[in-house]
Every structure is written in C-alpha cells, then in structure tokens.
Design a protein that fits this description.
The complex is a heterodimer. By secondary structure, chain A is an alpha/beta fold. Chain A is built from ten helices and five strands; from the N terminus they run H-E-E-E-H-E-H-E-H-H-H-H-H-H-H. The longest helix of chain B has 19 residues, at 77-95. Classes of the chains: A alpha/beta, B alpha/beta.
Chain lengths: 266, 678
C-alpha cells in the first residue's frame, strides 16, 4: 500500500465511515479502477490518470444495493454527481466525495475553467485555464471553414459510442443516438445529426470532464465542441450544468415552470 | 457483494486491445477501456465495448451433448470424452492416424492451441492440424516466410502514429481494425499521406490523400506497376537492394512489362495515379504498408503478398521504426494460434515438422514417436473428406459451415465423415452436425494469453465462472490427451503450459507469466533477459538476404461471363464478427447490422432494375442466397459485396473454393455471380 492508498483509506473508512472506496490503483503494470472494501488493503493508489470514476460508478451502482461508497472526485466528477443526484439516479446519502484537485498539466489538457473541487482532500488547487485554443481558432474562422473543419473531423467517427458510454452524464434509458432516424444502422461515419443531436442534447448536462474526447478513437476534439455548445447554453439561458440545486431551464413547461420530479430525467 | 475490474484482452479482432471487465458477483456488467495500455490507449470499438454482452447469453452450451438415435442429447463429460477417444481410436486403427483432422482455433489461447496441436501430433499421431488462419493470412505466413524468413507483422501498432506515408490495401481498417485506424489517424493529423487501394470506397478512403479502386483480383498488376515506376525513375534503395536482397535482376525484368497503360487496362487504376502513389510511397522516409484479406484471399494470394514484399525491399522500406509491411490479422489470437503450432507444417515457433532434427527434439520433449510428414491443410482436408479420405474431425471452436467457401459442398463432406466432434461456446451451425459437442469456456472465463497482430503477448484473465459444466479448452485438451493414454497432458494451469511451449519454441523462449503480467513483450523473445522485439528485419533477415520473387498477374479462377456477369467479393462489416455466434447475440451490435445485404453500385442497380432495400437473389455457380440490396456508390461498377456473417444468407454458399497452390487459402474475394430481383 502506497502513501496515497493509506491516506485515502484513512479518509474514506476511518474519518468518513465509507464501506467502499472507488479509486484507481496499480494492477498488472496498468492502472485499474478498483472498488476497495473496508478493511481491504487499498494497494498502490494512483490519481494521476483521468479515469471517469463517476461513469464507472454509474455502471455498478444499481448492483450495489447497500453501503456507503467513497469516490475520488475531481471538480467535474463532483458536478457530474450533482446532475445525477438531481435526477434521483443516485442517493447522496450513500456517496462520500473525496476531493481531488487536478494537476496543472491535467488542467491544461482539459482547458479546464473550473478545476478545484469544493473541498480539496488530495492535491493542490491550480489556477483555471480561461481559453480553449481550438475554440478561439474556430471562432475566428468563417462558418464555411468551420463546417469543413468539423466535416473532416467527423469522418473519423467509427460509431464506437465511446463518447456516450464513457460520459458520466449520459443516462437516458433509450438513447436517441440509437434511434434509426438520426443514426441509420450500418453506416460509418454517421451523419452530422449524430454529433449535433448529441451536442444539443448534452448542453444542459455536460460538465466538461473531457472523457468523450479522450476516449474518441477518431481523435475528434469533442471537448471543444462541448465547450462551444455549453457556451451557447450559458449565453442563451444563463445556465451552467453541475450545480447542486439549479434545475436545467430546458426541463420546464412552456410557461416556464419547472417539471415535477422524475417527469423528465434526461 | 463483490465488485471487481478484471484486466483482460478483447476477444474480437487481432489488435489486442485491453479492457477491464466489470464484474459484480460473478456477473459481467460492463467494459471499461484501459488508458495505460500502449496499444488501445483507453479506446475501444463498438465490439469491444460490448464484449461482455454475449457471455451470459442463454444459448451458451452448458453440458456435453452426444448424438443418440439422430438427436444430440445431454451427456456426462465422462461419456462424451470417452466417446471421442474411442471413436477416434477406432478410426485410427482402421484407416491410420492421417484419416483424422484436428482443428485448432484462433479464438483459443496460445496455451490451448499448443495443447490442441500436441493432441493431434503426440496423442493421435498426425500432423493434420490446422485452423481458420488458413482462410485469412495463410498466404501471408507462406509468402513472407519465403521472402523475409518470418511471416508476421514487421512493426508494432503504435508505430503507425509516426509514419509519414501509409499505403492501405485490401483492408477496411476503420471497420475491421478500428483501433489500428485510430493510430493511423494520429499520423494523418500530423500530415501523413494515407493511400487506400481498394475495390470499395471504405470509410478510410474518404480521408485518404489518394483513394484508388482496382478491379478485384488485379493486385499484382498495380504493385508491379508501382515497382516499374520506382525503378524507371531511379527511386529505389540501391544500397538495400545490393546488400540485403537477392534476385533483383529477375524482378526488374518482370515488372518492366507493367507499364502504367497496361496496368490501367488490367486494374482500372489511372496511369497518372499509379505514378503518383509510386513516387509518394518511394520518397517517403517512414512508409508503412497495411493489408488484410483483400490481398490474401485469392487463389494467387501468396504471390500478391510476395509482390508487396518485393515493393518494400525495393524501396528499403523495412527494418526501421515506423517503416515496414504489416499484415493486419483479424482474430484475437490468430497470430498466436499460428505461433503455437496450429498448422500442419509447423511445430510451435514455426519449426518445420519435416525436419528430422526438429522432430527428434519434440519426440524427446514429449516422450512419443511423431509423424515426419506435413499434414493436410484445412481446406485441402475438407476436399479429402468429400472423397472419403478424412474420416474424423475434432474441431475446437471452428464454425466451418459459415466461414469456409462453398458450404453446400462442405456440408456434404462433413456428412460423409464417420465422426465429428465440436468444442464451442454456442451451438454453431457446424456443432449441429456433430456427433459429440463439448461446452467450452469463453475468453472471460479462463486464464491464458493471446498474441496480438503486432506479436505482443496479451494476458487473458478469468473474470467469471463458465456456465453450467463448461470447461476451458485447455482442460478439455488435457482430458482428451490423458484418455488417449499418452504422457504430457497433466497441466494444472495455463502458466505451466506456456512454460513448456517457451522451452520448445525459441521465439517464445523468454516468455513467462510473471514477465507478461506487468509488461508488454513482443516475440521474438529468445531469453528471459530479452525485452522482445519492436520492429523486425533490422540489419538482416532471419535467413540472411531477403528474396525478390518476380510474380506475374494472373486472372482470378473465375471471371465474369454472360451467365454470371458480376464479380462478387466478400468480407466483414464493423458491427458483426465472422460467423456471428458472439456478435449476433449482442443486442447493441445486432441493432447496427441486423440483416444480410448485398452492396452494389447504383449504375448496376439501375441496369438490373434493382432499388435500395429491395429483396434480391444473388447466385454463383455453387448456389444462391436471398437478401436485401444496398445500392451505393462506395463500390465500383461490376462488383458486388456480401458480408459473410449471416447464416440466413451465407455468402460462402456462393464463394469459390479454388485454392492458392502454396498457402491453400481459398479465393473468398473473387467469384463470378449474378443478381436478380426477388
């Protein structure tokens, strides 16, 4: 057990009363997600790789009916959990957040404007990055050139669905991207609709963790696309995803009243 | 309540991506990509993301089955294994050991393939052991062994990232090897010129610097044409040719006949495009070639592979990082099943079965007398079965009834057998014809290793228990070996099997489970202190000099005729895998590609009066299938494409069983066919 493992085990189990700790640790010369049980050796824990632990948790959460789960959370993970909890998909009382402040390098890789969790348990707070260089470049291009840029990027999409499968705030039971109208079977690359439907659909949920971009087998700069859609969301509705209380302005009646609980989770 | 993330290797194509299986109480609930893996780098394709989906499918075979009064009925392991051994022994007693064929499997681990070939050679006494590599890269293995002395991918998958020219031919890389394509994109983003030569407009060709379409079966012509341009314009690597090869003058003479005009006539590729790609490829410093079934599955497949080998030697594009000739292999362990000796002419590690010294070495190690002559290849043996010369087949996980050419004839051959035993995870089309069916564990239910297309040893780790009474193939092989009464089948773990194999196959000499548990090692790895090899043929070839083999273009065995005016070619799509036993039981994959179809060009569709989505009948000299038409401009006029995944319209009812004379690979990529409404 490394020092980090000891520290995390102490925080999770001794100080905060968790039954499980979801973290990353070294296994077989690689870094593996691990659901560590109370009393178990935490092993050599690592926090330097941006695994999407909230998404990993979402997959197993329905299968773990009891006990409190501590999760190592970056600021984006914390915001993803807020979106999940707001939709009653997880119970806040069963979750213990261990705050991880991202390194300067990671903040740069994510062009992250909000990198510090509300409580820092591990790491040191680093300054945000205000600009996404690609977004700045795209902003300066003509609409036609932007279309050309995205068309050539989307050609690399081979429909692995990694951008949805690895997304912590993708939680519809029936995915609109699997609807044949938008995404006909067989064809790759899928049409513009695939990316644009996803882009609009995620704009009141996306917390800019960047996992879609990191897992894209085509190397498409999806985080930039997300940031651009989120910027529009903010401009048009004054709304940013990830808040504990605030409900998406899209989840309202035509009169502007918020929808009742559970009426519309997506 | 236990939750585990088990790091293992994807069971689909040969890229060797690693992922974590999410396990809750002996049940798989998901797949998480592994970010630290140097090959997959946290990325997977749609098949990988759903690799858990078929594992708990209710159709899994759970008990042994034995045919009684014409019906397959449940039996005990004792009875089923006993039946196989007594039937095979009886047939061997009457007709000799060479009347039996054993089929290994590219879906089984290295350790299992090692035991399966040992079972054939040491327990039954025949070199008649082969597997589905015969249908995919047999011509690569035979062609490259003749040209270079070693029949494997020369580079590693991550080396594509830094190439500055990638020539892709006969490979629909984005669909068949999505994560290798992902590495090609990295090079593309840095400005590499991607050249695609394929009869179909593949998704990759839309990003290519040049996308050229040759008529199926005309590859030697354009490859020779490239070499003529390169020699005429003095763009070849004189030092490499002089110091590292033999046979240049003969090559020069043969390729001289392939002028751009003549190449255009044969292939349909415009002369100016040919000249351009020849120059681009020759002048690039880091040039890599990637190819797959479009090159190999021809009755002259070995020669096409040798033509590509000639091209790399002529330009000196070999033996360096991000420079080489790369056969992309299509099954999780097809590289390893060849390495482990699942071939009729090679012991493990490509050691010849007809070399007396090698035979002596294996006789000493295994403590039995061994046959001295090469065995029969899968495709040849099946033809022998039709003539009654092969009496029994024991097959581990092959579904020949969908994967092999001309299945109408094949079914007759199988029905003529006195005995057929199948080991599989699902009741495949072939299993339904068997006398005994044994239930096997799948990749998620056993330990072992796969060898990826780039020669890396990839651990396979057990995540859940097999269903019912199913057992891993290595245990089944051990049980059979012991019941045949020969020594050397008393293994307690796959790790022990690898130790035995490493002791006998020098290219695996330094491999053991402790080493590969934590590091990526690629063969050749002759000793424990060897780190393995990244790219091959640096400095010299295994056999000294590389051999130029002048090869001429020849027509495919079948060319269009008035009765069958079209060329039919076959292959895969992204979402289904081979005979579909796994993917068609994975709902998300089946959603994407639920039914069989034939692709044809819009001009042909118009000529035949066929519209998109219409039901059509496609026929060849061997049979016909009924399926939906997909009208597209992504295939050249005169050619049709049918994926071979679908039992309800099997492409291989149509394909031509004509064989390459050296590799015995069938001409799955070209036959003459016609299309009719209805």
């Amino acid at each position: 057990m490394n020092e980090l493992g000891k520290k995390l085990a102490r925080i999770a189990f001794d100080e905060r009363g968790a039954d499980y700790l979801l973290a990353m640790r070294e296994e077989h010369g690689n870094v593996a997600p691990s659901m560590i049980r109370k009393g178990e050796d935490a092993g050599d824990v690592r926090v330097d790789l941006p695994y999407q632990l909230v998404n990993i948790l979402s997959n197993i959460y329905p299968w773990v009916p009891k006990g409190r789960i501590a999760v190592v959370c970056r600021r984006c993970d914390e915001k993803a959990l807020n979106e999940i909890i707001k939709r009653n998909l997880m119970d806040r009382d069963r979750l213990i957040l261990i705050g991880l402040a991202c390194t300067r390098e990671q903040v740069a890789l994510c062009r992250c404007s909000d990198p510090v969790p509300s409580k820092v348990d591990i790491g040191e707070a680093n300054a945000p990055v205000r600009e996404d260089p690609l977004m700045v470049k795209l902003d300066s291009m003509s609409q036609q050139d932007r279309l050309k840029f995205w068309t050539s990027e989307f050609r690399k999409c081979n429909k692995c669905f990694g951008c949805t499968l690895n997304c912590p705030v993708c939680f519809c039971d029936d995915c609109v991207l699997e609807e044949h109208t938008f995404t006909p079977e067989l064809g790759i690359p899928p049409s513009f609709a695939f990316h644009l439907v996803r882009s609009m659909h995620m704009s009141d949920k996306c917390i800019e963790c960047g996992e879609c971009e990191r897992s894209c087998a085509g190397g498409i700069p999806l985080l930039t696309l997300r940031k651009m859609a989120n910027r529009d969301m903010k401009r048009m509705f004054g709304y940013e995803a990830g808040d504990k209380e605030k409900v998406s302005p899209l989840l309202t009646t035509l009169e502007g009243k918020l929808l009742e609980d559970g009426e519309h989770v997506c | 309540m236990s939750v585990n993330h088990v790091l293992t290797t994807c069971p689909y194509c040969g890229t060797g991506c690693q992922f974590f299986l999410q396990v809750v109480d002996d049940r798989l609930v998901g797949v998480v990509p592994c970010k630290t893996d140097e090959i997959s780098q946290g990325r997977l394709c749609i098949k990988g993301y759903h690799a858990h989906a078929f594992v708990h499918h209710p159709d899994r075979l759970k008990t042994p089955l034995v045919r009684k009064d014409g019906q397959l009925v449940r039996a005990s392991w004792h009875e089923a294994l006993g039946r196989i051994v007594s039937e095979v022994k009886e047939i061997v007693a009457h007709h000799g050991p060479d009347s039996v064929l054993v089929l290994a499997s590219a879906k089984c681990t290295n350790e299992e393939n090692y035991l399966i070939q040992k079972l054939a050679r040491a327990a039954i006494g025949t070199n008649n052991v082969d597997h589905c590599a015969r249908l995919c890269h047999a011509s690569t293995v035979s062609g490259l062994i003749l040209s270079f002395g070693s029949g494997a991918m020369t580079n590693t998958t991550p080396e594509f990232d830094n190439a500055d020219c990638i020539l892709v031919t006969g490979s629909n890389t984005m669909e068949a090897h999505p994560i290798i394509a992902s590495h090609m994109f990295k090079a593309h983003a840095k400005g590499a010129k991607v050249i695609v030569v394929d009869p179909r407009e593949t998704p990759l060709s839309r990003m290519a610097y040049r996308s050229l379409h040759q008529k199926p079966g005309t590859d030697i012509a354009w490859i020779n044409g490239m070499m003529k341009v390169i020699i005429d314009e003095d763009l070849y690597d004189r030092d490499f040719v002089k110091n590292r090869t033999t046979g240049f003058e003969a090559l020069k003479k043969v390729v001289d006949g392939y002028t751009p005009d003549r190449v255009e006539q044969i292939t349909g590729i415009a002369g100016k495009d040919l000249i351009d790609i020849a120059r681009t490829y020759a002048k690039s410093e880091k040039a890599m070639i990637a190819y797959a079934m479009g090159v190999t599955q021809h009755s002259n497949g070995t020669n096409i592979v040798r033509a590509l080998a000639n091209l790399t030697m002529l330009t000196g594009h070999l033996g360096k990082e991000s420079v080489g000739l790369n056969a992309l292999r299509g099954q999780c362990n097809v590289q390893g099943s060849c390495d482990s000796g699942g071939l009729p002419d090679f012991f493990p590690g490509y050691q010849k079965v007809d070399d007396p010294e090698t035979v002596k070495k294996f006789e000493k190690a295994w403590g039995v007398k061994l046959p001295h002559e090469k065995g029969l290849t899968l495709t040849w043996a099946v033809q022998q079965a039709a003539e009654g010369k092969i009496k029994a087949i024991v097959a581990f996980g092959e579904n020949v009834m969908l994967s092999d050419p001309d299945i109408t004839h094949l079914e007759k051959a199988l029905k003529k057998l006195e005995f057929l035993a199948i080991v599989d995870i699902f009741p495949s089309e072939t299993a339904l014809l068997a006398d005994v069916v044994l239930p096997a564990a799948c990749y998620a239910e056993k330990d072992g290793t796969f060898t990826s297309t780039d020669r890396a040893l990839r651990p396979v780790r057990k995540a859940v228990d097999p269903p019912g009474e199913a057992m891993p193939d290595w245990k089944i092989a051990c049980e059979l070996g012991r019941r045949f009464g020969v020594p050397g089948f008393e293994f307690k773990s796959p790790s022990e099997i690898m130790d035995e194999m490493a002791g006998l196959a020098p290219i695996y000499g330094g491999i053991d489970y402790e080493r590969i548990d934590r590091q990526v090692i690629r063969w050749p790895c002759p000793s424990k202190d060897s780190p393995g090899a990244k790219f091959l043929h640096a400095g010299s070839f295994k056999m000294g000099r590389g051999v130029f083999a002048p090869v001429e273009h020849t027509d495919p065995q079948e060319v269009p005729s008035p009765e069958f005016p079209m060329i039919l070619t076959t292959g895969r799509n992204l979402f289904q895998y081979h005979t579909g036993t796994m993917t068609r039981r994975s709902s998300k994959l089946e959603r994407e590609a639920p039914e069989p179809y034939v692709e044809l060009n819009s001009k042909d569709a118009k000529a035949f009066g066929v519209v998109d989505g219409e039901r059509v009948r496609v026929s060849s000299r061997r049979g016909s299938v009924s399926l939906a038409a997909r009208v597209t401009d992504n295939i050249i006029p005169g050619t049709m494409f049918i994926p071979f995944h679908y039992a309800e319209a099997p492409a291989n009812r149509l394909t031509n069983p004509a064989l390459d004379p050296i590799a015995h690979i069938p001409e799955l990529k070209v036959c003459a066919a016609r299309i009719e409404k209805g």
